[in-house]
Amino acid sequence: MEIWINPACSKCRSALGLLDAEGAEYTVRRYLEDVPSADEIRGVLARLGLEPWDITRTQEADAKELGLKDWPRDAASRERWVTALAEHPRLIQRPIITADDGTAVVGRTEEAVRDALSRE
Q1: What's the pLDDT tens digit per position in 8-62?
Q2: Whether the bond into 89 is cis, omega within 30 of 0
Q3: Residue 41, Cβ neighbours under 10 Å: how many?
Q4: Which is the catalytic residue, given 1, 9, 18, 112?
Q5: Which of 4, 5, 52, 118 is the most exposed place for a label (fewest CB within 10 A)?
């Protein structure tokens, strides 16, 4: 199991606390320092079953600067979104937990983190 975190994020710290309390084995990826490639983002999206705009933090300054709210959310625009996430990792929703069964969850709630734990 791997968890993509920003240490400054309270949701990330809560998820780590729950994983630790449950004795889970996991690897931490500080995705702002170890930025995921476009291929890695595509892989996580496939595991999540989501589109790039579904995991984009549209309220971030970078999102406003790029004008993301006005970008089309369709198949033709998918790569543009993936590229934006790879070039501006602050836009990636967090934490993302990749489970050992090949799936992933956005662990913003205790319920989502527990869901990831159940997939080990």
Answers
A1: 999 999 999 999 999 999 999 999 999 999 999 999 999 999 999 999 999 999 9
A2: no
A3: 23
A4: 9
A5: 118
Active site residue 12: no
- Residue 120: which pLDDT band, with cuts at 50, 70 and 90? low
Q: Is the separation of the CB atoms in 55 and 49 below 8 Å?
A: no
Tokens 């662990």 belong to 107
Q: In what order do the strands lie in the sheet with 2-5?
A: 27-30, 2-5, 96-98, 104-106
Distance from C-alpha of 19 to C-alpha of 17, rounded to nearest angstrom? 6
Contacts of 38 (CB under 8 A, 6+ apart): 79, 82, 83, 85, 86
